[in-house]
From TrEMBL:
Protein's UniProt name: ATP-dependent transcriptional regulator-like protein protein
Domain HTH luxR-type, residue spans: 865-930
Family matches, as Pfam families: GerE (PF00196), TPR_MalT (PF17874), WHD_MalT (PF25873)
GO biological process, one term: regulation of DNA-templated transcription
Signal peptide from the UniProt entry: none
Molecular functions per Gene Ontology: DNA binding
Domain of life: Bacteria
Region (Disordered) residue spans: 1-22
Assigned keywords, A-Z: DNA-binding, Transcription, Transcription regulation
Length: 933
């Protein structure tokens, strides 16, 4: 492997001191040269080097290398137990066997999904020896967007050469969405892939299930300790120390095989006092022993080296120029190389000896020692480090050191400059993390930081943190300018929408600002894109669909000028809803599929969740319940936590009805309970009302009229009097308009029902989705009145409106009365005439057949010719057996260790070969052809 490789494995001869200092943005430049995004830190992908004298952990190697059934191995133990070194030895052993390998060291910043994804994609690129992109290849089979887990599994499944991935410092990962990602991936790893994890704590990655299935193993702290034989070998390789067998035995007893303790003894045995102490009583605990030995190791260093060690101990990572800035030592590179060569708990982070890092155990000891010299010593180190990092465009490390030396103005000003990039790039959790560590008065003095932090907290729905920032903005309304981010109007407009649920005020504020048409770049482009989205939402609600299209075009233009994909996710979701309410469901689905193919696949927060919410709504109306369930599994929690009221309502109603359609009534109710909880805690009364009106609908569907009336009378009245012509997306899905009509029909108050239908229709024209639902309700009204022909005329109108978009659920959800009329209409089509006048056409027949099949009606059709168009493969026959057992797509994927999209690909081929359109038809046809018993 060439020396420039980030995976150089052997460092028996560390590089000599070099004058090739790290340049500004060294990590970023290195990542760019390799084709990675600039936010990829290459040192995180660098494998710890092998040093002379490292003890081969043969027992552990044999354990993990001889069991081919293992796919996950976790090395778990406190600091200093040699997890990284052992992982490196396993990696070297795998490479000797011809495996492809890749390494990733996690840190706290990886809890931001955007950051994490960038580095994981880089890992996959290194594993495959070429650039990899989650958006580069998509399954061509269906509507479900692939998340990072599916992409990663599909990419790994296509490998012929075995591969192993090593992830160190896993305890840094706390984000629940990322832990769910790992649970999903590790449960479905291909047989020729092995993931090794190093962690101080047992990670929450579904280990219990993996171990029960015998595909995972845990190497615990006791396993990581050196055996007496390994301690003997360790000191045998240090011949110059001349350690006796008795001394080795005493060291083993003192350390109990703790690798860091053994290494500290090796470094400290030069001291006669330490050797003499081996004969004394063993009364030290691990921490006391480490401090005792570290003190002795430090005392063996020259005063100059001690000063260097202490002052650089506060650095998260070290480079020669940074160390020179902190210590004043011009020979910092030579000192770093010398420390690394001596094994003094310093390791290189790259193959060029540019960046280094202390072992956490040793850096903690050094920092505590420095602290005993007084707070001023710490403050000076952090101050110099902050200034150097700021000058070299390392904002995160500059903020860290500025906060540590309590230079809050420097930290706040640095975050202000960096925050525009964080918001536009959707690194909201990172901005929140640093914002939370600043004194509020420092934030309040910086209007730009107030506005940018407010955007992040709004989209993350952190209401308690957000309120003080909104109060700061109110007196500044109408002042300042968007370019230096001192005008809060656009941010306040977003708060009206996301916090106060006042879309009219939000749209008015955006239009009054008069800046949406401006052509700006950078963060102003983000603000303008977000404002254009607000404007588009208002246009959709008011029925100005062309105006919405124009506003969305503006939003996309701002996105192209640097507004960030964050804006684009919402733009795509609003575009989908604009199409859907106009009756263009198939166009909406195609658009949402295309957008999902371009979205960052792990973007399960904020904009990605908004896109998923709209997609769920569309999938439900198209009756694609399997894909909807897959999306719900991935996105429901993020949707609950991060998106706008209307998308939350649309997604939760779709999920609840999906469960109901699949016979899971308890789960359907649980989703409504969650929706109501969100409404109360937000607090959004309109969202609470949506959940309550859905309960009314369910009660009526179950024949519980009195209960439905009681539920309806307790629902707070609509507040739409301020803008009665506005119809929100949530109201299109469910609400008082439909609810009171259903109640009037159920109570035989036909006149009231007819009046309410007329009033609802008069509110807006051109809202085809709503017109379909009103026509279906009018169909039920006419049926209840005994006007059969009139009922069929109303049904035909609903069919004409819904046929182009092939809407399914909005017709079927109104119950058996509609299905009965559909069956009558179908029989009449077969006879060549329709009740109520008119002539049936093939499009009518195809659409009615689609609806009846979705309702479970057996149309009595057989597969063409009762013969296969092409023989089924063995994998497809296996899939058929799963279908017969009623196994879900997700369960099939788990059993076969493939992605859900791969399952859908096979199912699509099966349906095509059998000439069928769904699971039930596939089972019946396969039985008829004797393909299954």
């Amino acid at each position: 492997m060439p020396p420039s490789s980030p995976h150089r494995q052997l460092r028996s001869h560390p590089l000599e001191a070099t004058t090739d200092w790290p340049t500004p943005l060294a990590d970023e430049l290195a990542s760019t040269e390799r084709g990675f995004p600039s936010d990829v830190r290459m040192h995180k992908l660098f494998t710890p080097p092998v040093y002379p004298g490292a003890v081969p952990r043969q027992a552990i190697l044999d354990r993990v290398l001889q069991d081919d059934s293992l796919r996950v191995t976790v090395l778990q133990g406190p600091a200093g137990h040699g997890k990284s070194t052992t992982l490196q030895q396993i990696k070297t052993a795998h490479e000797a066997r011809g495996w492809r390998t890749a390494w990733l060291t996690l840190d706290d910043a990886d809890n931001d999904p955007r950051r994490f994804e960038s580095h994981l994609v880089a890992v996959m690129s290194l594993l495959h020896g070429r650039a990899a992109s989650p958006g580069a290849s998509r399954s061509g089979t269906g509507d479900a967007p692939r998340d990072l887990a599916d992409w990663m599994l599909d990419t790994l499944s296509g490998r012929i050469t075995p591969a192993s991935i090593f992830i160190d410092e896993f305890q840094a990962l706390r984000n629940e969405a990322l832990l769910r990602f790992f649970r999903s991936v590790l449960a479905r790893l291909p047989a020729n892939v092995h993931v090794f994890i190093g962690s101080r704590t047992l990670p929450e990655i579904g280990l219990a299930t993996l171990m029960v299935n015998r595909v995972a193993s845990v190497v615990r702290a006791d396993d990581l300790r050196f055996t007496p034989g390994e301690v003997t070998q360790f000191f045998a390789d240090s011949a110059s120390l001349q350690v006796s067998a008795g001394e080795v035995d005493a060291i083993y007893r003192r350390t109990e095989g703790w690798p860091a303790g053994v290494q500290l003894f090796r470094l400290a045995l030069v001291s006669p006092e330490v050797r003499m102490a081996l004969d004394g009583a063993d009364d030290h605990g691990p921490r006391e022993l480490a401090e005792y030995l570290a003190d002795n190791v430090m005392s063996l260093q020259s005063p100059r080296m001690q000063e260097f060690l202490l002052k650089t101990s506060l650095l998260q990572r070290l480079s020669a120029p940074l160390c020179t800035a902190v210590t004043g030592f011009e020979d910092a590179q030579e000192l770093l190389v010398r420390l690394e060569r001596s094994g003094l708990f310093l390791r290189a982070l790259d193959s060029d000896n540019r960046w280094f890092r202390y072992h956490g155990l040793f850096s903690t000891y050094l920092a505590e020692t420095l602290q005993r010299n007084g707070p001023e010593a710490l403050r000076q180190v952090h101050k110099k480090a902050a200034q150097w990092c700021l000058a070299h465009e390392l904002p995160e490390e500059a903020i860290h050191h500025a906060l540590c030396c309590r230079n809050f103005p420097l930290a706040a000003s640095t975050l202000t400059d960096w925050s525009s990039q964080l918001v536009a790039g959707a690194e909201l959790i990172t901005l929140e993390r640093w914002h939370d560590r600043l004194p509020f008065h420092e934030v309040a003095q910086r209007p730009a930081l107030v506005i940018r932090a407010a955007y992040a907290l709004m989209f993350l729905r952190r209401r308690p943190k957000l309120r003080p920032l909104l109060e700061l903005m109110a007196p500044q309304a109408g002042g300042g300018d968007i370019v230096p981010t001192t005008n809060p109007d656009l941010c306040r407009a977003m708060s009206f929408l996301l916090v106060d649920d006042d879309m009219a005020a939000a749209a008015d504020t955006v239009e009054q600002a008069g800046v949406v048409q401006r052509e700006l770049e950078g963060f102003p482009a983000f603000e303008l894109g977000a404002a254009a989205n607000v404007l588009a939402l208002g246009k959709v609600a008011s029925g100005d669909f062309e105006g919405a299209r124009q506003a969305l075009a503006l939003a996309r233009a701002h996105l192209g000028r640097g507004g960030g994909s964050f804006v684009g996710g919402y733009t795509a979701a609003i575009t989908g809803s604009n199409l859907l309410v106009q009756g263009r469901l198939q166009e909406a689905l195609a658009h949402l599929r295309d957008e999902n193919a371009q979205e960052a696949p792990l973007d399960t927060s904020v904009a990605g969740a908004a896109l998923a919410a709209c997609h769920m709504f569309a999938l439900y109306e198209a009756n694609d319940l399997a894909t909807l369930e897959s999306l719900a599994h991935r996105f429901q929690r993020e949707i609950s936590e991060s998106v706008t009221l209307d998308f939350i309502a649309a997604a939760h109603i779709a999920i609840s009805r999906m469960h109901e359609a699949r016979g899971r009534s308890d789960e359907a109710v649980a989703v409504l309970d969650e929706l109501e909880r969100i409404g109360h805690t937000s607090p959004w009364q309109r969202l609470v009302a949506v959940s309550e009106w859905e309960r009314v609908r369910r009660a009526l569907a179950g024949g519980e009229i009195e209960r439905a009336v009681a539920l309806a009378t307790r629902i707070a009245p609509d507040s739409r009097d301020d803008a009665p012509h506005w119809i929100h997306l949530a109201e299109d899905v469910e609400g008082s308009g439909y609810g009171w009509i259903r109640l009037a029909i159920a109570r035989h108050d036909h006149a009231d029902a007819a009046q309410r239908i007329a009033r609802e229709r008069a509110r807006q024209t051109g809202r085809v989705y709503r017109d379909i639902k009103l026509s279906v309700l009018e169909t039920l009204l006419q049926q209840r009145m005994g006007a059969r022909n009139a009922a069929h005329r109303c049904l035909r109108k609903a069919l004409q409106l819904g046929r182009r978009g092939r809407y399914v659920r909005c017709l079927l959800d109104e119950g058996d009365g509609v299905i009965e009329l559909l069956r009558e209409a179908y029989q009449n089509l077969l006879r060549g005439h329709e009740p109520g006048g008119g002539t049936g056409t093939d499009p009518d027949r195809d659409y009615i057949e689609l609806l009846l099949e979705a309702s479970g009606t057996d149309l009595g059709r057989q597969a063409a010719g009762n013969a296969l168009t092409e023989a089924l493969s063995e994998r497809e026959k296996e899939m058929l057996r799963f279908l017969l057992d009623g196994t879900t797509n997700r369960e099939i994927a788990g059993r076969l260790f493939v992605s859900e999209n791969t399952v859908k690909f096979h199912l699509k081929n099966i349906y095509s070969k059998l000439g069928v359109g769904n699971r039930l038809q596939a089972i019946n046809t396969a039985r008829a052809l004797r393909l299954i018993d």
